[in-house]
Amino acid sequence: MKRIKYIFPILSISLVLASCHRDELNPQSQTSVTNTTAFATLGRIQAQVQGLYGALKSGSLYGGRYQVSGDVKADNFINETNNLITEQDVWVGNPTNSATAIVNMWSAAYLSINNANLFIDGMNATGTKITGATLGAQYIAEAKVVRALSYLALMQFYAQPYIAGGTNKGVPLRTSGIAGPGFSTLARAPEDSVYGLILQDLNDAEAALPASQGTGINSIRATKGTAIAVKTRVYLWMQRYTDVITEANKIVTASAPFTTPAGFGITYSLQSDVTKVFASPYATSENILNLPMSAGTGDAPGTQNSLASYFSPTSKVATGGVGTGEFSLNANGVISDVNWKATDSRRKFILSSLTGTKKWLNKYTAPSPYTDYPPVIRYAEVLLNLAEARARSVGGVDAQATALLNAIRQRSDATTTFAPASNAELITDIMQERNIEFLGEGIRNSDLVRLKSTIPAKGSAVAKNFGDGGYIWPISATELSLNTACTDN
Predict the structure, then answer these.
(1) Strands, E, within 30-127: which ranges?
(2) CA 402, CA 408: separation in Å to the nearest integer?
(3) Which of 297, 303, 315, 298 is nearest to 365 (CA)?
(4) Torsion of Cα atoms, 338 then 340 then 345 then 349, to 10°
(5) Residue 162 per-residue DSSP state
(6) Angle in degrees, 0-180, between the axes of helices 133-158 and 65-72, rounded to the nearest 10
(7) What average pLDDT does the segment 134-153 reach?
(8) What is the pLDDT of residue 34?
(9) Of residues 211, 163, 62, 183, the one with CA closest to residue 114
(10) Residue closest to 123 by CA, chosen among 71, 76, 182, 177
(11) What pTM value is reported for the model?
(12) Is 423 left (phi over 0), alpha (psi -120 to 50) or beta?
């Protein structure tokens, strides 16, 4: 597989992102170029495009912590280390404004947004003259996908779920690049405004991106299908179920075997073996977007950020463990589902301790420096997004929703066929299948919060209901100190 090493853009970072430490901004460019010449050559522009993904794959964002927080904040894991740096407070549900996870994800997301804004500004000013209109539009579209994903992460953790009204306070909406101090003051925009930008960015990206970036690159660079897939996630979060169906139908056939309709330009489909999705080269027909890591200097998630280090035990605790064992699996969580059979191939991701009864998730298996490619979105999610949207909007025991659900289950467990007797049972089955399929991928918390569902108790951590402190995160202390117009949750 051809691999692209992402580097960070060469443009300067604003004061509003001061909570990012310089040593976290790796890998760093070895060339210093002023803003006036940053878009002077095609090579410099292409390096900045790669740098957009470099910011997105920060260990504090989609390179690790987004997925970790999205799972440990929910109900399937038990904290083993009581370490605030590695999200014990997120697990309990009481992180403060200055907590590591709260400050670092906010900072990383706005760094990613600012990089995208600076790039879009520069392309509109001079860059497109170098690239030509078509290629320039494609590069801008990639920046918009990165910006949309970054804002979506912020909204999922720091804002009320859309179901609560859609007009509550979102996050500061920054759409122009900041290359120097003096631009910190900006109030939180209404949720509708933030989602409006997210969807506009994704619609623009769908129009300008190619269906295929090329063999070996399609799963690590945004394509038309990436924009569509992410829209199904956004619309599901917003409970706009007919829009989920409209978008998913662009890349999902009406009947099994579910794949991309003919003529789309790229083929998405489920892998027959789910373990292949999480193994090198991470470029299957199911991997819509993941983020490449390597052992090169600054090109791994970094200390206390990586997926394997959090979820996998040490080799002394369980055979095959490669991590530090921060979180074991909750015995009362999804692994206790008696309908999730021992013969289901997804059970291969679960390790048992050499002594005792503890279980561990070993979906990510690359040892230190932990170079597993963190998943952002895959085709299985699109199928289950479509299944849920149909179940919730069409009503009854929808045949296509049931078929989509069975496609996911039977890929890993050919002995089970769902035959729900009611719409309520169908929805319950879909939600539990999501819980099983995406274990350790950061989706569980958003599945609970977007429906205002209770986050169940686990271990010593009490349940969190909608409206309780910690149900959504407080605003970063760094943002509040720099931005006097921003208010806390």
Answers:
(1) 77-79
(2) 10
(3) 315
(4) -80
(5) G
(6) 30
(7) 98
(8) 56
(9) 183
(10) 177
(11) 0.93
(12) alpha
